[in-house]
Amino acid sequence: MKIRKTKKAQHETAGFVLIVVIVMVAGLVFLGLMIGRGEPSIASSKKISDLLTASMYHTTDCEDANSFISYKNGQELIKSCYKGQNCKDGRTACEVLNSSFKQLITKSLNVHPDSPDKGFELDIYYQLLKDEENIEKDPILYSKEGIIENCSLRYGGYHEIYVDPSLSSPGIIYTRLSICRSE
Question: Which of 18, 44, 123, 125, CA to CA, is 20 to 30 A from 1?
Answer without folding.
Answer: 18
